[in-house]
Amino acid sequence: MEALREPSFRESVDLMFNRAVSVMDLPPGLEEKIRVCNATYTVRFGVRLRGRIQTFTGYRSVHSEHMEPVKGGIRYAISVNQDEVEALAALMTYKCALVETPFGGSKGGLCIDPREYDEHELELITRRFAYELAKRDLINPAQNVPAPDMGTGEREMAWIADQYRRMNTTDINANACVTGKPIHAGGIQGRVEATGRGVQYALREFFRHPEDVAESGLGGKLDGKRAVVQGLGNVGYHAARFLSEEDGVIVTAIVERDGALIDDNGLDVEAVRNWIASHGGVKGYPGASYVANGSVVLEKECDILIPAALEGVISMNNAERIAAPLIIEAANGPITAGADEILRRKGTVIIPDLYANAGGVTVSYFEWVKNLNHIRFGRMQRRQEEARHQLLVDELERLDRYLGDSWSMTPRFKERYLRGADELELVRSGLDDTMRAAYQSMHEIWRERDDITDLRTAAYVVAIQRVALSYRAKGL
Ligand code: GLU
After folding, report:
1. For the residues 170-198, what does the mean pLDDT come to?
2. Same structural domain for residues 132 and 223?
3. Out of 71, 95, 107, 181, which one is annotated catalytic?
4. Do the domain assignments include residue 449?
């Protein structure tokens, strides 16, 4: 039944959760235990800036501790509020369960417009926020491990890690207290691109299943599909770039804060990103038509719509007019529960957020493991792997000489085969494997069960089943 009013973000997540549990058989009471948010800590702290004390409000919400540490980003935005942080924390629980990263769900946020402060001021604010959270174990390698989210990045994560280290000088695992750090401060290769890369791998996997593609009315390959991308931040930029440069996807429109750009022959994602960096928006970008009211461009005809910015951009107000037959939720919660209902009725296929944007937390998991291992991935094996490959190449070359012109090894093969995998290649391979396995788990029950008719419900059912199993193992 269609909701009468637009639900809040948290209500939306709960409605999607309820839809899934209605086709599950959970022990009495467990459903509520899983759905509710365990705790939300609100902190108000002062920082002396520009000659006066300014008070900031921040949150860290812990949705589920069925596995610890709990995991989830810290968002800096003026719109941050408790409802949003709790919805995002719940999504983290289901996301981690779906992609089998051994974490519970958490999320943090600070009500701040980071563009209003210079770097030094942001450092003071971040360190103070981190201090408040760390002293309550809401930042801790074994209990709660934040990461970047909207408005934060490597720089903030490095400050947080350093703050934690100063407060816990003898903790040998201090680096694992936060992920998304810069490489020189304990980070991992490929973390910045990870969420966008995950979106790419998710789409590739979807297109490996022709029967799933057919549900949307689309056919054929990913190559040549037309995509509209909303938001050219870290997630949208990497997803759009990889899809257009490596998979032949044509990005026909980019929707940003100050309007949208349209070019049916395909936009140059890199050039648009550079234009935004130097001009503060998309307006004036040469060689594409500009539309000031960006939100109508979400309704533009295309094959794939990629919302990669804020939650709630597809709501009961515009869902009916969305023309894309396939939507991949690169952002968290871009489609409200009311809009989801309308789109499902229209036959739109939605690749849901908890799967589509799980690349970020997956590579965060690799970073956390790297930090606990105190060694870079591949450091022990790389040269040994190369030496073994060399043995085979030597043998083939011997054969080459013996067979003469009738057979020869291409130089390209030799070069590629000889090179042992570095950290970036290992991270990408681990991420690809994770995205494929998670898709398979959703796909199986989507196809097998008549009462599960969409990918989102399938994703929630897989995730909730796993959370329920770990509660059972704990004796609950
Ligand atoms: N903020 C990202 C998300 O929403 C990443 C979380 C993490 O890496 O822990 O999934």
Report:
1. 98
2. no
3. 107
4. no
Work out how many domains the chain is built from and give that number. 3
414, two tokens: 């030799």
- Please check whether residue 264 lies inside any domain of the structure: yes
Question: Rounded CA gap, 251 and 29, in Å?
Answer: 47
146 CA closest ligand 1 atom index: 9
Same domain flag for 97 and 144 = yes
Residue 151 Cβ < 6 Å to ligand 1: no
On whether both 337 and 208 belong to a single domain, the answer is yes
Q: Is 107 a catalytic residue?
A: yes
Instruction: Report yes or no: 272 and 282 within 8 Å, Cβ to Cβ.
Output: yes
Alpha-carbon gap, residue 476 to 279, rounded angstroms: 55
> Mean pLDDT over residues 129-140, rounded?
98
CATH assignment of the domain containing 296:
3.40.50.720
Can you say whether the dihedral through the CA atoms of 183, 185, 191, 192 is positive or negative?
negative
Which pLDDT does position 1 carry in this prediction? 44
383 plus 354 within the same structural domain? no
* Residue pointed to by tokens 């509020």: 81
Structural domain of 399: 379-408
CATH number at residue 121: 3.40.50.10860
394 lies in some domain:
yes
Nearest CA to ligand 1 atom 7: 361
| 198 and 345 belong to one structural domain | yes
Counting residues of the chain whose pLDDT is more than 70, the rounded percentage is 99
Pairing status of strand 104-111 against strand 52-64: antiparallel
Same domain flag for 303 and 387: no
> Is 152's C-beta closer than 6 angstroms to any atom of ligand 1?
no
The residue among 334, 305, 341 whose CA lies nearest residue 320 is 341
Helices (H), 347-422: 353-356, 359-373, 382-403, 411-418
Q: Is the pLDDT of residue 3 over 60?
A: no
For ligand 1, whether the C-beta of 179 sits within 6 Å is yes
The rounded Å distance from CA 200 to ligand 1 centre is: 17
- How close is the Cα of 51 to the center of ligand 1, in Å? 35
181 lines ligand 1 (CB under 6 A): no
- Are 119 and 174 members of one domain? yes
pLDDT band at residue 2 under the 50/70/90 scheme: very low
Ligand 1 pocket, residue 332 CB under 6 Å: yes
**Atom of ligand 1 lying closest to residue 73 CA:** 1
Q: Dump pLDDT digits (tens) for 316-345.
A: 999 999 999 999 999 999 999 999 999 999
* 237 inside domain: yes
71 lines ligand 1 (CB under 6 A): yes
Q: Exposed, middle or buried: residue 223 (CB in 10 Å: 0-12, 13-18, 19+)? A: exposed
Same domain for 246 and 283, yes or no, is: yes
